[in-house]
Amino acid sequence: MFHLITGGSGSGKSEYAENLVLSAGEGERIYVATMIPYGEEGRQRVERHRKLRAQKRFRTVECYTGLAKLSFPQNGIVLLECVSNLTANEMYETNGAHEQTVEAILRGIDSLRAQVKHLFVVTNEVFSDGITYDEEMMRYIAYLGAINCALAQRADRVTEVVCGIPVKIKEVS
Amino acid sequence: MKLIIGGACQGKLTYAKETYHIADGWADGRSCSREDLGSCRGVHHFHEYIRRMASSEEQSLELDEIEKQAGAFACTLAQENPELVIVSDELGCGIVPVEKTDRLWRELTGRICTCLAAQADEVVRVVCGIGVKIK
What ipTM is given for this predicted complex? Predict the structure, then answer.
């Protein structure tokens, strides 16, 4: 089962996704962390998410680029957070996929889907502030938009979290 | 308590006025006081009230602190004014802002609205003038 969870910043999507993993039954809980903790704010954010997961028996695997190289057991219940970080990493890190960012991330997600029994992927709504940014930022937004659309097509479920409330976008019965 | 959220200029206030039969007496988050929030029937531009909160206090971006503060604020407001109708822009669906106070504001608005949503008996998201009840 592949469930895509989206939402804005501060919408409560992380907590919602973690609770989905907790109610997904038996299996090995694996958290794929993608955020490179730059600066004090980044460190705080990582620390906060780590605390929220602390007592929930997650194994944390850090993966900043090259998702396709990960290998997990069949009984894995994997939570990957967050596609918006992964996209920036692939675009801008020296060992990233650069122009092939969209393909690399989709290949990575497809590889995870084929390996584990449940995959929960958290992404981000960054598309509605109406601001025209510079070319580079617009390219980031376009890549993330394309990835989100492609992931939603593959997903069995898509949920948007709004003020902590899950809003169903797609469900394949 | 009712919470009405959505993007800017989506007809949220009109929706709230009609749905909850509150023609006037609305507090405006751009200018109202903390006391007004406790006594008014409805408040709009609530996110602008939070912007003033975020900029008036010398705050760190310590997320645990923001979360605690948001929870306390939402609980107190729900007790003070349990029939309050709150209309707020939904922030957070954009690129991370460059300015620290903007990031704080966005984060605080998200957390406060999440806490208010948990307390509210009704949450409506207005899109293109149409209210979609999500709780």
Answer: 0.87
DSSP state of A83: H
Interchain contact B43–A (C-beta under 8 A):
no
The CATH code of the domain that includes B23 is: 3.40.50.300
Indicate the pLDDT class of residue B57, thresholds 50, 70 and 90. Answer: low
Q: Which domains does chain A have, with CATH numbers?
A: 2-171 (3.40.50.300)
Cβ neighbours of A45 in B, within 8 Å: 63
Angle between helices B63-80 and B100-119 (to 10 degrees): 40
**Cβ contact, residue pair B113, A163, below 8 Å:** yes
Confidence bin at B59 (pLDDT 50/70/90): low
Strand A118-122 to A76-81 pairing: parallel
Share of chain A above pLDDT 90, in %: 82
Using CB atoms, which residue from A11, A41, A48 is nearest to B64?
Answer: A48
Q: Which residues of A touch B5 (CB under 8 A)?
A: 162-163
- Report the greatest alpha carbon distance in chain A: 46
